[in-house]
Amino acid sequence: MKDLRSTSPGLPIGGGEMGQLIREKDWNNTPLGDPAKWPQSLRTTLNILLASKFPKFLWWGPELTCFYNDSYRPSLGVDGKHPTILGMSGEVAWPEIWHIIKPLMDKVLENGESLWFEDLLVPIYRNGKIEDVYWTFSYSPARDDDDNIAGVLVTCAETTQEVLLKRKLERSERKLRLIIQQAPASIATFKGPNYVTDIANANALQLWGREAADVLKKPILEAIPELAKQGIKELLDDVYKTGNRFAASELPVKLYRDGKLETVYINFSYEALYNTEGIIDGIIGIGHDVTDQVMAHKKIEANEEKLTMVIDASELGTYEFNIKTKKLDGSKKLHEIFGLSINEDIDHTHFVSSIHPKDLEIRKAAFERSYENGILEYTSRLILPDTSFRWIEVKGKVHFDEENNPHKVLGTVRDITSDTLNRQKLEESEQKFRLLADSLPQHIWTADPEGNLNYFNKSVFEFSGFSPERLHQEGWLAIVHPDDKEGNINAWISSISTGKDFLFEHRFRKYDGTYRWQLSRAKPQLNEDGEIQMWVGSSTDIHDQKEFTNELERLVVERTNELAQHVKDLANMNKELQSFAYISSHDLQEPLRKIQTFSTLLLENEYENLTDDGKEHFKRMQNAAKRMQTLIADLLSYSRTSIAERKFEPTDLNKLITEVKMDLKEELAFHQAVINTDELCIINIIPFQFRQLLQNLISNSLKFSVKDREPHISISSEKGLGRDFDLERLSPSINYCHIRISDNGIGFESIYSERIFELFQRLHGKDQFQGTGIGLAIVKKIVDNHNGYITAQGTPNQGATFDIYLPEN
């Protein structure tokens, strides 16, 4: 070992490298001179300096000569001042910082003041350049043997690395805070076991529904108490104690927002934060509000379910075909279309082999087109396992890989057998229609639902002399007479807007320039839903009929004048007829009354003088007179029914029945009859005539009742369209009031259902039932006066039913 002992008196002993350098240096050429003459205080100070393990530096004497120990040596670097500055004056040794440190040393030298600095930047030359060096140091006065301040003792430590690390940490923390604040995610940090919120960016505050003052520097579970019952504390505790990362996706969390508890879906993670000693002292939470995405997913899932339902309802089979691997995956419906069970494979080979051989080229061409435009679409025939065939429609979307090569096809297959066969039938039907239309002399034409004419038969072109191109260019109104165009257009627009049949008379121009009258008709053709699919129309030449009609109208005018005179004459005749009816009834009944009077007198005065035959003859004479009187009354009623004024009034049938029952009170009581009625119609009728009708029918039921059977008469009514009743004579679209009168009397054979309404028709002898056979004829006449219909049905010994149908005016 090298001897570090001093070779000169007064020099320090030991001190490592710097002690050796001090001892070996020639100090005679320095301001301090021979070390033997150095003051004891200097030697003592150097011994202290060199023995210290803490970096120390000494400036001594007026020139502030430089000394330093081994601990200070590393701060000078490998290419700098060491060992040159040893024994050198301070100003010469440290020119780059002299302006910084000289004023500090002056304070120590002049005032004896000790100074302390921490992490002070003092750049020095080292390692071949000026470097920023940070120091924590103290300047203390060093005294000579006379206790005067002779130098400055520096105790120092280079803190460059610590300062730079601290600044790096500060920058890192500032950068972290800046990143956290600007991050698109919700980020927060929590310190300590109580998870005090240290940092919370704007997104986190927005997610929590809180302001910064509500959460910062506060335990997060106190700031947001609703989290405590949702298992969040347990998650934080586990991360804080174990350091295990926790992550969750689409976790539902309930948070108060605007005073209302809302469910928020969050993707978030908790990570442990470590201090410089590697101990967990906090947690960082990173979250993303994915509520919108979750709701969108749910909506998509719901839509997918709906789509699946729609696809199933639309009878579509779905498939995915990998073009490279030729793998084919198909739905249950696809298997059904191919006539296979769900357990049977439907690979690409089976798919292609099932295509009709004549349609393979169609499929190939469709795939070639799809590789260019991305859309696959074709129709072909499919041969099923049972050798039957069906038509299919294949559609798909081609997906391309990153190199723009076709990768796979997603699509649908639909069974269009029914549609195809129907279309073929329709085409055949249309062909037959056109063939038939071209063979007709009438003009046949069709139009779409909007009224645009799109087809004319051959007759139209032959009549007009127009070519199809010209008619298409000029329009069909070109052949309509100018005076008829406006009315034609208005009538056509009305039909199109209302859906009602089109009917119009107009003139068409013939190829020779003349015009002929046409009757045009068009009917809408409806689908099952009642929607118009097209219009089919025809135009028939009515020119000759029109000319005839014009001539007929002229003749009608002439005949009308004659008819007016005849009507006037007829009115006079009706008046005369009324007078005749009155006179006839009066004059006929006068001698009849005399016959009845004298016969009654003879019977009262001469009855005992008459023989039995005479009595019988008188009795028969009186009966004949009564029948004659009844017949005259009935004939008069019948004639009045025909000539009476017809004044219709809204009438409640219930009220009318009540009045009839009062009129027939004694007769109903005598027969012990029961009349049952429903709530009857209110209808526009001639009240006094209809009262007579009801009285005749009820009297008829009483007259033809069964002996020892209590008469029951039922009267009901209902309203409806003619088509609702089982009677061909009724107009289908007119409203009727249907009145039904039934009894349980003697009835009649069905062969007499029409005959009973004729004048003087009797189905029974006058010795069985009294009557003239005019009552039902009057009923029929009254129904006719109301433009209605009456029918009768009977069953012997069970009763009769009369159905009356009156149109509602």
UniProtKB/TrEMBL annotation:
It catalyses: ATP + protein L-histidine = ADP + protein N-phospho-L-histidine. Residues 303-374, 429-486 form the PAS domain. Its EC number is 2.7.13.3. One of its GO terms (molecular function) is phosphorelay sensor kinase activity. PROSITE patterns: HIS_KIN (PS50109), PAC (PS50113), PAS (PS50112). The keyword Signal does not apply. It comes from Algoriphagus aquimarinus. Residues 247-302, 376-428, 502-554 form the PAC domain. It is an enzyme of class 2 (transferase). This is histidine kinase. Gene3D superfamilies: 1.10.287.130, Histidine kinase-like ATPase, C-terminal domain (3.30.565.10), PAS domain (3.30.450.20). Keywords: Kinase, Phosphoprotein, Transferase. Residues 583-809 form the Histidine kinase domain. The keyword Kinase applies.
